Amino acid sequence: MRFPVKQALEAVLGVSRTTFTSHMARSQFARLGFLTSNAPDQRHGRAEPRPPASGSAVSIEEAGEAFATLVAFLRHAPFTASIDRLERDLVDTDISSAPVVTGAAGLSEELLEAALVVRRDVGRVSDVIHATVIALVLPKILEPGEVISNRPSLGPGNDKTRPYDLETNRRVAEFKVALWSSGDMMRKRTLTADLVHLALDQSGRRPELWVAGTEPTRFLRTSTILVGDLLSRASHHLRTRYHDRYGTDGIPVREFLTRHAAHVHHRNIADVLPTVSTALG
Questions:
Q1: Is 73 exposed, middle or buried (0-12, 13-18, 19+ CB in 10 A)?
Q2: How far apart are the first and last CA of the chain?
Q3: How far apart are CA 208 and CA 217, in angstroms?
Q4: Which of 59, 83, 143, 163 shows its CA 20 to 30 Å from the CA of 107?
Q5: pLDDT tens readout for residues 20-42
Q6: Is-contact 6 65, C-beta < 8 A?
Q7: Contact, 253 vs 225, CB < 8 A?
Q8: pTM exceeding 0.70
Q9: What are the sequence ranges of the domains in the chain?
Q10: 3-class DSSP assignment, residue 40
């Protein structure tokens, strides 16, 4: 019977498979005389190709093993610090010592394979989170007499017929679900674009900007980056509307917030969904 090698060793030892690698598990079973499907090729010093799974996709069990491998690596140490240390350690290495250094850092073919599997299978996880957050928020925020007036934009991006993530007879709202790191410029750009988009609304409905945690709002309240710079990669339509209304790129974000977007209501998704609050914690 075929069985994922890490789960098999976990069942035998009673030890969590996140504490060891597939290579280690294969080595232990090889010592005991068991045959594995990814045994080392002694002629070339590398693994035999894995047999293709049905439909060119790995099984759920193999995907779970890949995810566990990736999470174990990421939880071992902060990724940024690990990469910084590795970059420094690679200085003065050569053809023989460089592989030793990278291997000690945990960057292996097994890790690459796991990351590729995870990216392929859960590459749209952000879209799933976005759609699920809005779906769960709706029954918690809709007011008596408030009805959804247009098809919500649950997937990535808005189109001309659905300019907002949510439109009701009382409000227009955008949702930014990503968890922030302070240096994430792309998220600052998209957040600013949504703020400008809401500030430009003239429907008379209440504009709301929903974010995950306090960091996005802190950025808007304190940043001196010019709005025009942050909108440089936004849609041409939004940039044209911005210039037509405000006439200049030289407005700092914090000034735009207090002068031109003071009517936009800021809401923290974590206040409504405990799951998001826990993730932020």
A1: buried
A2: 42
A3: 12
A4: 59
A5: 767 778 878 887 888 876 544 43
A6: yes
A7: yes
A8: no
A9: 5-122, 125-280
A10: strand
